[in-house]
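Q: I'm writing a short explainer about ATP synthase protein I for a general audience and would like to include a description of its predicted shape. Could you first generate the structure from this sequence?
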Amino acid sequence: MVNQVAADPRWRVEHLPFLSAVSAALMLCAASAGFLYGGPEAALGAAAGVLVVTVSYSMSTLVIAWADTVRPALLMPLGLLTYVVKYTLLGVILAFGVTSDWPGRLPLGYGIVAGVVVWTGVQAWWMYRRTSRK
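A: Of course. Here's the predicted structure. Afterward I'll give you a sentence or two in plain language.
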């Protein structure tokens, strides 16, 4: 079974549809909570925070999966470059949020935190479930 998994590159991204659906549900919940907290601006901020994490984590997964299938030697440099770009953009977004007077800045931060916790937890659960089948 191990050789079949290694030969089939789809296992690297098979979790993305499920995680995207969970993120969409979280985005709706975050927008609802943000709206109840502070109106439309807070709803937009909370949803945008979850969206930033979803796009960021999906991008990392796709780049790493691509590098691993094309040339495994590219995995470390491209993975590190992806993380540097991702966290630089996240830092810029958070710096904008901290320095602005936008009413959605606090929900944006909470949306990012919720997105990271939920994505990481669901991905860990997915991988545990996948490896426990063997």
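A: For your explainer, you could say: Residues 1-5 have pLDDT under 50 and may be disordered.
Q: Perfect, that's easy to follow.
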